[in-house]
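A common beginner's mistake is to predict each chain separately and then try to dock the pieces by hand. The better habit, illustrated here, is to supply every component at once so that their relative placement is modeled jointly.
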Amino acid sequence: MFDSELLFSGAFKNLKGNIIRELYKYTTQPGFISFAGGNPSPQTFPNEILADLSAEVLRNNGVSCLQYGVSNGQMPLRQYVAETMTAEQVPTAVENVVITSGSQQTLDLLAKAVINPGDRILVESPTYVAALKIFSIYGAEVVAVESDDEGIIPQALKEELEKGPVKLIYLIPNFQNPTGITLSLERRKEIMDIVQHYNVIVIEDDPYGKLRYSGEAVPHLKTMDPQGQVVYMGSFSKIIAPGLRVAYAVCDEKIAQKLVLGKQNNDMHTPSLTQLIVYEYCKRGYLEPHIQECCKLYTQKRDTMLNMLDKYFPKEMHWIKPDGGLFLWSKLPEGYSAMKLLDYALPAKVAYVPGDSFFADESGINTMRLNFSTATEEDMEKGLKLLGEQIENYLRDSK
Amino acid sequence: MFDSELLFSGAFKNLKGNIIRELYKYTTQPGFISFAGGNPSPQTFPNEILADLSAEVLRNNGVSCLQYGVSNGQMPLRQYVAETMTAEQVPTAVENVVITSGSQQTLDLLAKAVINPGDRILVESPTYVAALKIFSIYGAEVVAVESDDEGIIPQALKEELEKGPVKLIYLIPNFQNPTGITLSLERRKEIMDIVQHYNVIVIEDDPYGKLRYSGEAVPHLKTMDPQGQVVYMGSFSKIIAPGLRVAYAVCDEKIAQKLVLGKQNNDMHTPSLTQLIVYEYCKRGYLEPHIQECCKLYTQKRDTMLNMLDKYFPKEMHWIKPDGGLFLWSKLPEGYSAMKLLDYALPAKVAYVPGDSFFADESGINTMRLNFSTATEEDMEKGLKLLGEQIENYLRDSK
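With all components supplied together, the output reads:
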């Protein structure tokens, strides 16, 4: 009589785990070298300091840590976020700040708050795979906007906006996931000039912004936002630790209130303990030097990856040098498939993420995402050598 | 040009905060005595022990605490939950356990996984106010099933099931919120006999089950569930601390997988730190004696409330003695309004929750929820005396 399969909603009936999770069963095998993850390096985790801080806040501030808290987040952390955003030329009051359990939760809450089935959403092409899933769960029509090696093309964005109402534009302007591309100041200005003429929310997802290894910082889209149509999403996942699940949205108060209502009806609030640990870590001045340490480590890892690509990848391969973040984007020649290449790579015990799942349309078959934050330098050389050999085998076999 | 009001989804356009949150602005004033909250007593919080445990897990197990974790939860905690559920006559494997960020998140994930707009959901009348909100956000038609002073009426449930397909039945069998009523073994058996003939999921929400002050424990619905149609929801919020936001669902593996997909696309995973703190607290044997301490304290508070009601409430009032939990349910005579009574109570600096918001239909105007876990004994006497006086004033003025 009982058959749960018949009960699942339209959105969940065929919902599958994403490719990155699927690859886990390989990449956790001993001896496997993986460039597939998106994890920060565990050697950056300040666990001793966090241990001291967590014991201290629980001892001195037990009730705040342990009682039900407010849905918009712990006031000291909201104040800290408001101050740092204001210092980054985004005038921010605490009413504009909502603490969330990771930026992905902000995405989910915002999607839920605005999407009616069939609504159009514009995204970079490629873009963050979980964002594609989240938008589609709520029944949105996700439209990939033409993008090139410098990111989304403003004129193409305008053309899509002209075609009819759009609820959200989802952008990752710094060291994009998966491409590592940073949008230039010129493109940012152009985009904000365009969107102000449309009733649309722009999501500025910025989990990697502080992890810059070369070039100059570019102002946030939110600094060019006179109407309050940008929802800026920041996170402590990549600069302290993802396991804490603490992130924040900075936005117009009306939108903030809807996010808070969404949280009230989801996890009620982000755990106060993890919020207060993050707050103390920042307030005591640990964050800035820690980010510098992370950047030093990741600069080295990125440079090693670039050197190894030069050394081991066949000359037919193309890749984009990222100025920050965790990812590097590479392309096989047109007509080849990064998914098929996995048939060569996985038996050789090396992995990456085939890029097609980052595309809202059917394109990107020949692309792949390589993560450079987790592998050791030794594994990076070994793994990229192996991968280079397998690419050569695949290209040769396909001739 | 930009107007966010025009962008919100159908569900969020008119979504408001609930009455309990609205009352906060009164109840946080100095000198106010509130029976409106649903918080455990902060004097039960084991913050010193949690401080030690949190420092220890961060020091010894930093990477597990701080790196991205799996969406279904930390394996040791899932194993612990599986063992305790098995000991409570619910044979449970780790595959049946999903750790969530509070049971309310389980509700949200489950609702999202099964509800298509227009689907029918059956609830007790009255029931948990946030469940009503969550179901309605996903567009469900929520149907209140006739209930009496012993809880939901099985025959009435059957009649509603006969009327057409139902996706979910939402029940709080122990010390229900808001009524404090516990479903008898007989009614539980009757309900499970009925539901096995329908393709429907039964949610057994059990946040208070361990907080029993009188009477005998009654077996979970999930012990009478040969087809795996019950999703049991347990939580550490009321027996350790709500601020940690750690709860769990125990259910059929197929349903568990959908909950996990929902989490992957929401907060990704519950913070590993809070999960591991809870696990260590349980594993080291702190939980059982702590629950006994909580029960001792709350028994006293409940008995004080019952005594004060006898002493100060007018004879026209009706109330139900709860055998556990945090709430007591009271009724004004028919035709009177607990919402109107607030006009008397709030100026006298005493608060409760008017019961109508716990009803899916328009009934319950004369009902109110009184919480007995937070006020001190002294405040309880003072507050219930004040409230009794104001009820008398209201009844007299309305004659």
